[in-house]
Fold Ribose transport system ATP-binding protein.
Amino acid sequence: MTDPVLSLKGISKWYGPLQVLKNVSLDVYPGEVVALLGENGAGKSTLSGIIAGSRTPSEGSMTWLGQPYAPATPREAIDKGVVLIHQELQLLPQLSIAENVFIGRWPMKNGVVDRAQMVRRAQEQLARLNLHIPATRKVAGLSTANQQLIEIAKALALNAKLLILDEPTAALGGAETEALFEQVRKLRSEGVGIIYISHRMEEIKKITDRIVVLRDGERVQEFADSATPVRTIVESMVGRSLDRLFPTLPVPTDRPILQVSGLSSPANSFRDVTFDVKGGEILGIAGLVGAGRTELVRAISGADPISAGSIRLEGEELRLRDPTDAIAKGIVMVPEDRKDQGLVVGHRIGENIIYANLDKLGGRWITPRVKRSFAEIAVAKFGVKGRAEQYASDLSGGNQQKVVIAKWLMRDPKVVVLDEPTRGIDVGARAGIYDIIVNLAKRGVAVIVVSSDLEEVLGVSNRILVLAQGKQAGILNRDEANDVSVMELATI
């Protein structure tokens, strides 16, 4: 085997008294895809940041192409050929796609930015990912899936020698994922080393050559064959036997809580959708990217307008002008982008929980003791691994998601909508969120779950509404729903 393109020896990292990485060693060779797996908080993002120059190790050393390597900034890493595609989107919405792809390294001609060349080269990278959008278009308003592909296009334009992909398919559908995999295989054949971080086990088996597992900041296992049984891999990640992922679902009542009839969007993103959700029922919503799933649940939650149809809650027709109206009536939504839409990441956990519940805590004046007590109850009730006074930005993705869920569930809502509730979350944290969802149903709450993960929507739903190109393709009962029947409807 050739020499590694990147070699890590004894990497450790402390944040004050907290040690998040413990003596981690890792080699990555040219032309191989190494899966880096572990639960949220296992140290994957910290290790990736050290490799990519956004963090510095407390101990240990690295070599790049056989030479000492210690990037002080991401720019130094990029100049060497190391590119990290973050799980969280880092685009500037008011700039064009082309400007985002080449930001900080504009193609120049006669001392000015060569915009024609910039747009042409950006369009080439988009085409590699089968993304047919003008590179001159602003990023603002694009779907999360398309923004994720633009992040990937940025990395492709850098001609990286080592590419770190952190949950690159979390917001992508099947076709977009396959286009990404095609590029990963092409880069591998060109000798690029790739570190691939994902919680989707089917991807790991399909695209990676070997698997390295972190747990609690330590390297605990390596699997030389990506065909290793999923159960074996997951149990090494969580450090315990994995009995089951999806809880047993309760039997819904016969009483509809939410009734949606002939609902349509002014932008035509969904049309003439009709369904109900009973008390104690979990309704899954499935469909390909662009099918109108998120737009539909945003309308139900008051975030987007409707052009036709009605929404009834316990028989009362609602006139929702904004999310405040929906929240007041008892409809809450956990959005797909927890950092941009669900949290104030620079504020404390307790503050985030309080913001959604000010009216429940007495209105204008709330004592510190009442705020602290309320937040601590929410943190304990929903299994957030953190303290109320911690900043949300310090939490893993799974625990940030639990904070978003906790702040809304403390309102005792009648309808809970969860859009991609486990996006970018590890298997262990997923199981905890599934338990929360099922416990809501057991209390008689009507629950709607939107998910791009077909296994998830099949495992957690009593019934599944399938959308195809904005149209309602059908509703499947649990006993008739499987991956084939759902995809047949989704591709009508």
Q: What stands out?
A: Residues 6-238 form a domain with the Rossmann fold fold (CATH 3.40.50.300). The chain has two domains: 6-238, 256-490. Residues 215 and 359 are 41 Å apart (CA to CA).
